[in-house]
Write a structure and sequence with these properties.
Layout (H helix, E strand, L loop, with lengths): L16 E7 L2 E7 L6 E5 L10 H7 L4 E5 L15 H15 L5 E5 L1 H12 L6 E5 L10 H14 L3 H4 L10 H16 L2 H6 L4 E5 L11 H7 L2 H6 L3 E6 L7 H4 L1 H13 L6
Parallel strand pairs: 3-4, 3-5, 5-6, 6-7, 7-8
Antiparallel strand pairs: 1-2, 2-4
């Protein structure tokens, strides 16, 4: 698959590059601001795109190297035969290799936060650290009854998915694929506690307070409390801030808190790195 040509100004290390990065059977839409600052790689929510990070990037400013990309079948990226979690982890490596970055600071929201801590767990000598924006939390639905409920939900709302895509609430795949992605995510979250316990890089959480639209019985707040035992056991993990916004609005309403968490992780790096 041919990649798009980068911007004409790409010859400068300080210029922004935009283009398509081929990986396996697809290609990812990537933006890299360049520069000599710490490389920050932004990992999107399940169906979100690069545009959701605009406020955080603006709050951090130009002293950083900001790298954003759209995951498979999200935003401007191409479709694929593989939408698994492992494919998303491989995509991190593909983007890093394409942009010549070895040691990134990862910032992930929701699903992206799960990708970030898993990648850091597997690459502790390469990850400068992780900022998790309202996630990941070590809890998930793993029984077959819950899985069937997820499948029924996506069958019922399947007709709405194309309408939801422009808002970052759906991807360009079928209702069945949406359901299976969600089921897989729940299983990985449910098995996450040992991964969080073993992290040796600094991780800072920005935790939302509000319940998302459609959530019931304080479900999301209950999910957030599952992090407390891990925080008590692993000193590398800390809560940088708990903010008033809910899961869906946190990047829009509390981008400054996310930016501050990035600065906290960066401040922990030894001089000269």
């Amino acid at each position: 698959m041919d990649s798009l040509k980068p911007n004409d100004s790409d010859t400068s290390a300080n210029s922004t590059w935009t283009g398509m990065v081929p990986v396996e059977d697809t290609a990812l839409a990537v933006t890299d601001t360049g520069g000599r600052g710490i490389p920050v790689v932004y990992l999107n929510g399940s169906y979100a795109s690069q545009r959701h990070w605009r406020r955080v990037i603006a709050d951090l400013g130009p002293g950083w190297r900001h790298i954003t990309y759209d995951e498979r079948a999200r935003g401007k990226s191409k479709r694929s035969a593989d939408y698994s979690f492992e494919a998303c982890v491989r995509d991190v490596d593909a983007v890093l290799a394409a942009r010549g970055v070895d040691r990134p600071l990862l910032v992930g929201w929701s699903y992206g936060a799960l990708v970030g801590v898993q990648w850091a767990s597997r690459n502790p000598d390469r990850a400068l650290g992780v900022v998790g924006v309202d996630g990941p939390y070590p809890t998930g639905w793993t029984d077959e009854a819950s899985h069937e409920e997820i499948r029924r939900l996506f069958r019922r709302i399947g007709w709405m998915l194309p309408l939801a895509r422009p808002f970052g609430l759906a991807a360009r795949f079928s209702a069945e694929q949406h359901a299976e992605v969600n089921i897989e995510i729940h299983g990985i979250h449910a098995a996450l506690e040992p991964v969080l316990d073993g992290l040796t890089v600094p991780v800072r959480y920005v935790v939302a307070s509000g319940e998302a639209l459609g959530s019931r019985d304080d479900l999301q707040e209950q999910m957030r409390t599952t992090l407390d035992p891990v925080l008590a056991r692993n000193p590398n993990l800390k809560v940088s801030a708990k903010v008033a916004s809910n899961h869906g609005s946190i990047l829009r309403k509390d981008s400054a808190a996310v930016a501050e968490a990035v600065r906290e992780v960066a401040a922990l790096q030894p001089r000269g790195r």
